[in-house]
C-alpha cells in the first residue's frame, strides 16, 4: 500500500513542544515566531523532515500556519480545515479563521505595544515578507530573519530525503528539455535578463524532463535551479542523480551544471553579477538577502517563474497522455464502485477497507506509480471534513443509509488523476439527494460553459455555486485547481476560485469540484478533471475566439442521488450524454460483473 493509516499527530504532544519553542524564543529575545506549513521549496506537500507545523501543533492539513507569541499561539486555517483543526490541536493553540483574519491584523491586536517576531527566511517568500512588513509599518512590530526555532527543538527530526531521479521520456513530455530551456532562455534575453532563479521543484522537473521521489505523492525532487540566458541550467539538489539521468541532462559538461543543494549560497555569491530575475511569489526571502549582498538592487528584477505558464499549458502529447491515464483510472474506479455497491449495503465495511480496496483496483492496472494524494474516504459525518484523512483512530464504519465521499487519484507516467464521487450506501434521505443535485448542477454548469479568451477562473467560479446560493448554501473551498502532467496534483497558476486571476488558456488542466458539507451529518463533492480547448463555432454567433472545456474523467455519477425533477432539460441531456460517453469509453476496459454494473449505472435518466 502507498497509503498508511498510522496516527501521525496527537494533541497531547502540543503543550510540551509549545513550551520548548517559547523557551527558545525567550533565549533569542523574540516576542513571536512564525511557523508556516510550506518547506523551503514552497511545497503544499512536504517531506517528513519539513512537517514543522504538524510536529508543533498536531494540525496535519496541507495549508495553514502558526504564529506563536508568549501568551497565545494562533493556528491559521481556511474553510477546508475548520472542523479538522478542532480535532487535532490541543487547547493551548487557538484556531484563527484565515483569510478573514489577516496575520498582520492579528499581530497588531496581540502585540499592541510592538515586539520582535522571528521567521526563517528560507520558509517565507519575498512577497510574503514584503506584504507582512508593509502591513506592520509604524506598528512597532519588527520582523526579524532568524534560524529555524522548530528545528532547534526537534530532537528526532527525520533526515532530508535523498531519493533517485528518473528521466521523463520526450515521448511523454512532448518536447525535449533542451528545446524548453532554449525557448525560455530566449525570453530572458529578450527581457534583458541574464539569469532567472527557479524555486519550485515541479517547475524544475517539468523543465528538465525528470521526475523524483522526495515528496510523498508528488513525483518531484527537492531542488533549486538557475536558468541562464544561454540556455544552461545550474541545478542544485541532493537527490540521487544516476548515470542515465546525467547522460540525459549532459550534467556538468553540457546543458546542466549539477551542484549539491548546499552550494547554492556560494554560487549565488560568486556567480551572480548581472541582471538576475526572481519570482517574489516563490523565491525564499533568504535568496534575495544573499543576492542583494552581491549585486545592486537595480540589477534584480521580478517576474513570474518562467516555467509556470508553459508548464500549465499542456501540449497535445501531455493532453493525450492525460486522456489515456483517465481511461485507465476510470476503469479501475468502475471496478471499485461495482465492488462497493455489492459490499457496502452489507454494513461490514470501514473507511479503511474502502481506501485499501480502491488502491488495489488501481494497482491492478500495473501502471500506478503512486496515489496522487492521500485518499479521502469519509463516511457519514466524516464526509463533512473537507480534507479528511482516515487513520486507525478515526476509522468509521460505512453504514447503510449514509453518504460516502471518496476523493482519490493516481500518478501514472502519462498523467495525474483526481476524482471525487459521493455514493449512496443503501437508501438515503431526500435532503441528501436535493443537496447532491444542486452540487451536480454546479459541476454541469462548469462543464458546459463557453467563454471568451482572457477569462480567468475567478470569472467562472460563481457558476458552480449558483444552484447552492439559491438555496442559501455554499462551500468553503475553491471550485477547482490546476493539475500537472505526472507532476503535482495541485498546480498553479490556473484555477477555478475567487483568487484565480490567471486567464485560462488552451491545454490547462483543472479540477471541477463543487461541494456541500453539513457538519455532523454528511459531505458531498463531485469532481471531474477538465482541460481548456478551443470551442467550436456556434451558428449565428459573433466571430469571437471562444474556449470551453473537454471532460477528461469518465466515471458514472450516482443516479440514485439525482433528483431529476430539479434539473433543466439541458442538464438532463448533459448527464445522459456523459453516461453514454462513459459507457462507450470505459465499457471495453471492464468485463463481467463490473461491465454489468457500468451498463446499469449509465442508463438514461
Automatic annotation (TrEMBL):
GO molecular function: metal ion binding; metalloaminopeptidase activity
One GO CC annotation: cytoplasm
Cross-referenced PANTHER family: XAA-PRO AMINOPEPTIDASE 1
Domain of life: Bacteria
Keywords, ordered alphabetically: Aminopeptidase, Hydrolase, Manganese, Metal-binding, Protease
Protein name: Aminopeptidase
Any Pfam family: Peptidase_M24
Protein EC: 3.4.11.-
Similarity comment text for this entry: Belongs to the peptidase M24B family.
Species of the source: Octadecabacter temperatus
Residues making up the signal peptide according to the UniProt record: none
Amino acid at each position: 500500500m502507498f497509503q498508511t493509516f498510522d496516527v501521525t499527530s496527537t494533541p497531547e504532544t502540543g503543550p510540551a513542544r509549545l513550551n520548548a519553542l517559547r523557551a527558545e524564543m525567550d533565549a533569542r529575545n523574540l516576542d513571536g515566531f512564525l511557523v508556516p506549513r510550506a518547506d523551503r521549496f514552497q511545497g503544499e506537500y512536504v517531506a517528513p523532515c519539513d512537517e514543522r507545523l504538524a510536529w508543533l501543533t498536531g494540525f496535519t492539513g496541507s495549508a495553514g500556519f502558526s504564529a506563536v507569541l508568549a501568551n497565545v499561539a494562533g493556528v491559521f486555517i481556511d474553510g477546508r480545515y475548520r472542523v479538522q483543526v478542532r480535532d487535532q490541536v490541543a487547547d493551548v493553540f487557538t484556531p484563527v479563521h484565515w483569510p478573514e483574519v489577516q496575520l498582520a491584523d492579528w499581530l497588531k491586536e496581540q502585540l499592541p505595544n510592538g515586539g520582535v517576531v522571528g521567521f526563517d527566511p528560507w520558509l517565507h517568500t519575498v512577497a510574503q515578507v514584503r506584504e507582512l512588513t508593509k502591513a506592520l509599518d509604524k506598528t512597532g512590530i519588527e520582523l526579524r530573519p532568524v534560524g529555524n526555532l522548530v528545528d532547534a527543538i526537534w530532537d528526532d527530526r527525520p533526515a532530508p530525503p535523498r531519493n533517485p531521479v528518473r528521466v521523463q521520456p520526450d515521448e511523454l513530455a512532448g518536447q525535449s528539455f533542451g528545446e524548453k530551456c532554449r525557448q525560455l532562455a530566449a525570453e530572458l534575453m529578450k527581457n534583458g535578463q541574464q539569469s532567472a532563479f527557479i524555486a519550485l521543484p515541479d517547475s524544475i522537473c517539468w523543465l528538465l524532463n525528470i521526475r523524483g521521489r522526495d515528496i510523498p505523492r508528488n513525483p518531484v525532487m527537492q531542488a533549486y535551479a538557475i536558468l541562464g540566458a544561454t540556455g544552461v541550467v545550474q541545478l542544485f539538489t541532493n537527490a540521487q542523480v544516476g548515470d542515465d539521468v546525467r547522460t540525459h541532462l549532459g550534467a556538468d559538461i553540457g546543458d546542466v551544471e549539477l551542484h549539491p543543494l548546499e552550494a547554492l549560497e556560494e554560487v549565488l555569491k560568486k556567480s551572480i553579477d548581472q541582471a538576475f530575475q526572481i519570482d517574489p511569489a516563490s523565491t525564499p526571502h533568504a535568496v534575495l538577502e544573499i543576492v542583494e549582498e552581491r549585486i545592486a538592487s537595480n540589477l534584480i528584477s521580478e517576474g513570474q517563474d518562467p516555467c509556470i505558464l508553459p508548464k500549465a499549458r499542456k501540449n497535445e502529447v501531455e493532453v493525450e497522455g492525460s486522456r489515456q491515464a483517465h481511461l485507465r483510472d476510470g476503469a479501475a474506479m468502475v471496478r471499485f464502485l461495482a465492488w462497493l455497491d455489492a459490499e457496502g449495503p452489507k454494513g461490514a465495511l470501514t473507511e479503511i477497507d474502502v481506501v485499501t480496496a480502491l488502491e488495489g483496483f488501481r494497482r491492478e492496472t500495473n501502471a500506478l506509480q503512486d496515489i496522487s494524494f492521500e485518499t479521502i474516504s469519509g463516511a457519514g459525518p466524516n464526509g463533512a471534513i473537507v480534507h479528511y484523512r482516515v487513520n486507525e483512530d478515526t476509522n468509521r464504519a460505512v453504514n447503510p443509509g449514509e453518504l460516502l465521499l471518496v476523493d482519490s487519484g493516481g500518478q501514472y507516467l502519462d498523467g495525474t488523476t483526481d476524482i471525487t464521487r459521493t455514493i449512496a450506501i443503501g437508501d438515503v434521505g431526500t435532503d441528501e439527494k436535493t443537496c447532491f443535485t444542486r452540487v451536480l448542477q454546479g459541476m454541469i454548469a462548469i462543464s458546459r460553459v463557453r467563454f471568451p479568451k482572457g477569462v480567468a477562473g475567478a470569472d467562472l467560479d460563481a457558476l458552480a455555486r449558483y444552484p447552492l446560493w439559491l438555496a442559501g448554501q455554499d462551500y468553503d473551498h475553491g471550485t477547482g485547481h490546476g493539475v500537472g502532467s505526472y507532476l503535482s496534483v495541485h498546480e498553479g497558476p490556473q484555477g477555478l476560485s475567487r483568487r484565480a486571476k490567471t486567464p485560462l488558456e488552451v491545454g490547462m488542466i483543472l479540477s471541477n469540484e463543487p461541494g456541500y458539507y453539513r457538519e455532523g451529518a454528511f459531505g458531498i463533492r463531485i469532481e471531474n478533471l477538465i482541460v481548456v480547448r478551443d470551442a467550436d463555432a456556434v451558428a449565428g454567433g459573433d466571430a469571437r475566439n471562444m474556449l470551453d472545456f473537454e471532460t477528461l474523467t469518465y466515471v458514472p455519477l450516482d443516479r440514485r442521488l439525482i433528483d431529476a425533477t430539479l434539473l433543466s432539460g439541458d442538464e438532463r441531456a448533459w448527464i445522459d450524454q456523459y453516461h453514454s460517453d462513459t459507457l462507450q469509453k470505459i465499457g471495453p476496459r471492464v468485463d463481467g460483473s463490473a461491465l454489468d454494473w457500468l451498463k446499469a449505472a449509465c442508463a438514461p435518466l
